[in-house]
Amino acid sequence: MTSSTHMEQKTTIPLEAVAALHRGNKIEAIKLVREEQGLGLKEAKDLVEQFLRNDPAVQASFAQVKAQSGGSALRWWVIVIGIGALALYFWRRLG
Description:
Number of strands: 0
Largest sheet: none
Order of helices and strands: HHHHH
Strand content: under 5%
Oligomer: single chain
Shape: elongated
Number of helices: 5
Radius of gyration: 21 Å
């Protein structure tokens, strides 16, 4: 079997791994594939990434969750910096 024929085959991964991808957790999906299929880290990672490339719906869901989590992290950093700035302002004003 050539590599191009291998790439054209439908890639299947465990349903739990697909669910992990829908939650935006690629590392968990790779772990589940490794456990279920007895693959090494590189092989499991390649299989999960191939699955993402071949399934646009899962890829879109994964990208959306990642984008939302990135925005959420940025929002938390802004809040923490804002609280720190307010604390510094009041500390200097009182001291």
